[in-house]
Amino acid sequence: MDCNVFDPVKLPCGRTVENRLVKVVAMYEHMSNFSGGPPNKFHYGLYSEWAKHGWGMVLTGNVQVSPQHLTLGRDIVVPATLNAQDLKPFQRLAEVIHGAVDGPRSLAIMQLSHAGRQSANIIGGRRPFVAPLAPSSVRVGAGHPGAGKDAITDLMFHALFQVPTEMTAQDILHVQSGFVRGALLAHESGFDGVQVHAAHGYLLAQFMNSKSNIRKDEYSAAPGNVIRMLHEIVEAMRKVVPTTFIIGIKINSADYVASGSAEEASQQGERCILDHIRAIASWGIIDFVEISGGDYEKPDFMASVEAQQSDRQAFFAQFSHTVMKDLHRSSAPSSSIPLVLLTGGLRSHSHLQTALVSGHADLLGIGRGAVLCPDLPKILRLQLQNSKSSSAWSDRPFAHEPVAVLRASKWIQNVKLVGAGFGTAWYVIRMRDIAVSQIKNPRAEPPLLDYNRGALVAFLRMWAWVDFGIATISILVISTALLVGVFCYH
Length: 490
Description:
Elements: E1 9-10, E2 16-17, E3 21-23, H1 41-51, E4 57-64, E5 76-77, H2 84-99, E6 107-113, E7 133-134, H3 151-160, E8 165-166, H4 169-189, E9 193-198, H5 203-207, H6 228-240, E10 246-252, H7 262-283, E11 288-292, H8 317-328, E12 339-343, H9 349-357, E13 363-366, H10 368-372, H11 376-387, H12 410-414, H13 416-440, H14 455-463, H15 475-488
Parallel strand pairs: 3-4, 3-13, 4-5, 4-6, 6-9, 7-8, 9-10, 10-11, 11-12, 12-13
Antiparallel strand pairs: 1-2
Helix pairs in contact: 1-2, 1-13, 2-4, 4-6, 7-8, 13-14, 14-15
């Protein structure tokens, strides 16, 4: 397969991605108002940095379709109405992503999400003691591998998440309409498309997971129903947007592995996801599928130390290769087959090229690497010009990652959800540094990486942040952050 990172590729809808490098969502930005809201100057500053450097596609962080189901409080939220005033901040974000580079522009993709049962207490957008909605009344943590054996982890799950309320038929229709409104928001704001987040244990993944979906109706996790919710949403979206509007899906195998050994679970997950991707491709309305992994019970997608040192740099590369081969064996016209976006572990220049040449992916998703090195496409272009061949690219990582971030406490490492959250905080602060740098000087180079910033400092700075012009902070959240900090040293 003769393919270069900077070769363009056409999506089934007819749009062209100018190169294979995609800025994906390693974590969301945590920059909106505390109760959720539209994008603001911090988002514009951050995305203007990525826009300078010629990414093929730029995906936003989570844009929540329900203001009552936030993740960590500062989410971007789809507004209840789509009038001119509501559209303005989203139009500005689309313009920022499109406008800062000469020549072909990056495609701007809005990621739409609903947290479902993973919407946390207090900071999830609901009044105290109001439970989130989910396919079934199964609390986060009820299915984690150490349930009932690890008291600290169990305590964390009980403190953070309530037993959700099972969704009624009317609730399901309301959520579906929220996703459709999100697609309309993206289209009317000037985005090139949307990505529907059906991974990492969020609501749509909960419908596809037999451990979180124990319904007995047409939205059950039975083989004939398991992707019905997702299908109805994207089908309804496609009816209200132009045929050239991009619709992608984020999906992963870990979301619906129920039990068994690690090897059995992996095989089971791969069989399920392969069946689902075949079905998704058969709809003929999806442009790309992103393959990722993990959820809040098994937060592999947020891990930042052991997982990053895996011998296999691209965690999902082999399975992605299987998906690619399977899709191209189908009888469907090649022009209608969704592209495969591989995300996870692509941390060196040579591995990007290897993933393409080996047929592991059509598109290459860079998450944390894009935060560490937002000018990566520019750097790769310069290297290609100097070496004349991508085969000479180095195996060295784009940038050193903050391996020491999770070494503040053995307790952090033992509670994976908390440890992953501390690692995420480091990257959130890095994104905030980029945003502030661009606000102060739009021509500035990306700020230098601060490897001396520890886990606890990053965590506290992530939460104890006052927006310029906003003089309020949630005392309860800060108290919680301090309490967790105290525990870290005991």
